[in-house]
Amino acid sequence: MSCAHRWLAAGAMAIAIANPAQAAWPERPITLIIPAAPGGTTDISARLIADKLSARLGQQVVVENRAGAAGIIGAQALARAKPDGYTLLMGNIGPNAINYALYKTLPYKPSDFAPVTLVISVPNVLVVNEASPARSVNDLLAQARRDPAKVSFGSSGAGQSPHLSAELFKQRADIAGTHVAYKGAGPAVAALLGQQFTFMIDNLPSSMPYIQSGKLRALAVTSDKRLAELPDVPTMAEAGVKDMVVTAWFGLVAPAGTPPEAIDKLYAATRDVVRSPEISERFRAMGGQAGGNTPAEFAAFIDQERARWKAIVDAAGLVQEQ
């Protein structure tokens, strides 16, 4: 081998050694941060796909709950993570869209993240405890107008879609109500089961098991059409509350600067998982729809959602300090 050839071979080997992440990703376990407590849709959907992703990527996907502050704690952890493809976030409508409008200051910004793909989108559902006297939206509104000081609503956290959905509901229906925030849908649903507040507009998957068991009563869904899984539950429009269509969404996000090779491989694996018959059917049973759009499409979608919710938050005068 000539000196020139030996030099070229040595240079190629040096480049390969200097860039192991790009060449071999993933070569160790991946951490998937969930910015909410166990039991909510963010947690449920992440755990449903984690094992399937592990099998496709050949490395364990470790789920880690970092709840609190309307998803800010988990989102901030991702923004500070090394952009090597080994730390991801199950992002959602709250920390990745609503929060930018709701809070005057945040410890992260949109450019800190690299969207990968949408995992699932779901409608929300207006639910009350089975012991509630309200058997319809009109019953609930009558109750709220009769004794407004006693009406309260729970949510998975300030800024999450259940919170903003309830604020929209109050505006559209012209009622009052005190907000009670929890560190995720799981704790909020548990509190509603314990009759700690009047109503909740929850992401459907976390309330669905309790609706089906009769422990919670569904009064309306925020989709534009009735759901096959809840055929007897009217839409908000059918229940007399106009302009009340809300879709919550959840998807994978990586730190900005993550190598494109890792993003592309993760996108392809996640798309195949969420569109597989097993997972897409599980999502349908939860009232959700599987995602799988490209990173560019998901990024454009998040931009649109951020602008949409800014208009809603500004109109409602909901901007607050963190």
Task: Tell me the total number of β-strands.
Answer: 10
What CATH architecture of the largest domain would you give?
3-Layer(aba) Sandwich
Question: What portion of residues belong to β-strands?
Answer: 15-25%
Q: What form results from the Cα inertia axes?
A: globular
Low-confidence stretches: 7-22
| Highest-level CATH class of the largest domain | Alpha Beta
Alpha plus pi helix count: 12
CATH superfamily of the largest domain: Bordetella uptake gene, domain 1
Structural class: alpha/beta
SSE run: HHEHEHEHEHEHEHEHEEHHEH
Distance between the termini: 65 Å
Q: What is the CATH topology assignment of the largest domain?
A: D-Maltodextrin-Binding Protein, domain 2
What Rg do the Cα atoms give? Answer: 22 Å
Give a short overview.
Residues 1-23 form the signal peptide. This protein has helices at residues 3-18, 20-24, 41-57, 72-80, 93-102, 137-146, 161-173, 185-193, 204-213, 260-274, 277-285, 295-316, and strands spanning 30-34, 61-65, 87-92, 113-129, 152-155, 178-181, 199-203, 216-221, 247-255, 289-290. With 322 residues, it is an alpha/beta fold.
What does this structure look like?
There is one protein chain. The protein is an alpha/beta fold and 322 residues long. The chain folds into two domains: 28-121 and 249-316, D-Maltodextrin-Binding Protein, domain 2, CATH 3.40.190.150; 123-221, Periplasmic binding protein-like II (D-Maltodextrin-Binding Protein, domain 2), CATH 3.40.190. It contains twelve helices and ten strands. The protein has helices at 3-18, 20-24, 41-57, 72-80, 93-102, 137-146, 161-173, 185-193, 204-213, 260-274, 277-285, 295-316, and strands spanning 30-34, 61-65, 87-92, 113-129, 152-155, 178-181, 199-203, 216-221, 247-255, 289-290. It is globular. Residues 7-22 have low confidence and may be disordered. InterPro entries: BUG, Bug_dom1. Keywords: Signal. Pfam families: TctC. Residues 1-23 form the signal peptide.
